[in-house]
Design brief:
This protein is mainly alpha-helical. The chain is built from 13 helices and 2 strands. Strands 1-2 form a two-stranded antiparallel ribbon. A hairpin with a 5-residue loop joins strand 1 and strand 2. The longest helix has 33 residues.
Length: 417
């Protein structure tokens, strides 16, 4: 076997293995969502996460891949030449591996929305909007950044190595809009005699399951961030930043909640680890340890702020903290690239503001964020409103009180007696 063929084989295997790790993250998302919510909805949550990967796989293979990587224009790929995966431009020998890898990413974007809208969403409605995210919202945003679209051809290209923006910010924004339109769970917000809104905690049924899900996600994130590395040195650098950022975020959150509440908050620290991972995802390949530390510090505080903002100011009910983790830290991760990208990172071609690069990269990052936000917000809002005024977005009050396991799936309980 020639050196070139061996290199191609190793690259394909690593990309495939990274995709397997990202697929395993679906287990983590399921466990986090199930553990942080009530047991009467566990079966429904499991079913929704299966649906995400089911629709994501079928739709992305059929047309989403072509919309994302087809040879079209700066805005959209033309799917028909690439429908049924008939070739990815510039990757002749890696088509099927790349398709699999991008499919599991697509499913991740849809899964993020599930947690924020848990425990009160009509299952039929969930199937429709999960499909919509996989069909056109995620693939077209991905085309702009990774498929040769306009953001990748700017004079200073927009940089999102593994998806802080394309996956997490998109999924988090869909989650924020969806939870806002859907409304809170019964009993989450009540008013006192003076008309002040009181925020009521609705504890999840298993912190153990939620914690195990977080560790699985952290484990899988090494594939999420590392699979697209093109050299061993770059892979090592990515693994280091992907370890430092969530560790620092968790530490900062632990100290902050300890000081604020007198005791360290377990569930908030678990979400802080995920927030650090989301924050470093865009720039894991172009940052050094210093940049990863700063990303982690901000992420550890930002997840606390996000939860407080949704509960006490916006009064948006997010049972698992998905918006605080993915929306706020996806946004932060994109901005952080424009600030802390360093040309000293292996194979880095980016230079952020604080490393002497001026405002050029930061401007591209902000422009990309604004346009991705506009695209996502308009399309998902239209989708949710159509669903709301046709088949209905929300389960009935009776169904919510009984639990969606029984009312949506004829499942008395997800657990044995």
């Amino acid at each position: 076997m020639s050196t070139e063929l061996l290199t191609t084989a190793v690259d394909c295997f690593w990309l495939f293995f990274g995709g397997v790790l990202v697929f395993f993250m679906q287990t983590g998302f399921t466990m986090v969502e199930a553990g942080f919510t009530r047991s009467k909805n566990t079966g429904n949550i499991i079913m929704k996460n299966i649906v995400d990967f089911m629709f994501g796989s079928i739709i992305y293979w059929f047309i989403g891949y072509g919309l994302m990587y087809g040879e079209g224009n700066g805005f959209i790929g033309i799917p028909f030449g690439d429908m049924f995966m008939n070739g990815m431009a510039g990757a002749e020998n890696m088509d099927y591996t790349a398709l699999f890898f991008q499919t599991v990413f697509c499913a991740t974007s849809a899964t993020i929305v599930s947690g924020a809208m848990a425990e009160r969403t009509n299952f039929k409605a969930y199937c429709i909007y999960s499909a919509a995210i996989s069909l056109f919202i995620y693939p077209i945003a991905g085309h702009w950044v990774w498929g040769g679209g306009w953001l990748s051809t700017l004079d200073t290209p927009f940089h999102d190595f593994a998806g802080s923006g394309v996956i997490h910010f998109v999924g988090g924004l869909c989650a924020l809009i969806g939870a806002s339109i859907l409304g809170p769970r019964i009993g989450k917000f009540t008013k006192d005699e003076n008309g002040n809104v009181k925020v009521n905690a609705i504890p999840g049924h298993s912190l153990t399951i939620g914690a195990l899900g977080c560790f699985i996600l952290w484990f899988g994130w090494y594939g999420f961030n590392g699979a697209a590395a093109t050299s061993v040195e770059q892979l090592g650098s990515i693994f280091v930043t992907t370890t430092i950022a969530p560790a620092i975020a968790t530490f900062v959150c632990m100290v902050f909640t300890w000081l604020k509440y007198g005791k360290p908050d377990v569930s908030m620290c678990l979400n802080a680890s995920l927030a650090g991972l989301v924050g470093i995802t865009a720039g894991c390949d172009v940052m050094d340890a210093t940049g990863a530390i700063i990303v982690g510090i901000v992420s550890g505080l930002l997840v606390c702020f996000g939860v407080w903002l949704l509960d006490h100011v916006l009064h948006v009910d997010d049972p698992v903290g998905a918006v605080a983790v993915h929306f706020f830290n996806g946004l932060w991760g994109i901005i952080a690239v424009g600030l802390f990208a360093t040309p000293d990172a292996p194979l880095s071609s980016c230079t952020g503001l604080f490393y002497g690069g001026g405002f050029s990269l930061l401007g591209s990052q902000l422009l990309g964020l604004l346009c991705i936000a506009a695209w996502t917000a308009v399309l998902i809002t239209i989708t949710f409103l159509i669903i709301k005024h046709t088949i209905g977005l929300r389960a009935s009050a009776e169904e919510e009180v009984i639990g969606l396991d029984a009312t949506e799936h004829n499942l008395p309980s997800a657990y044995a007696d």
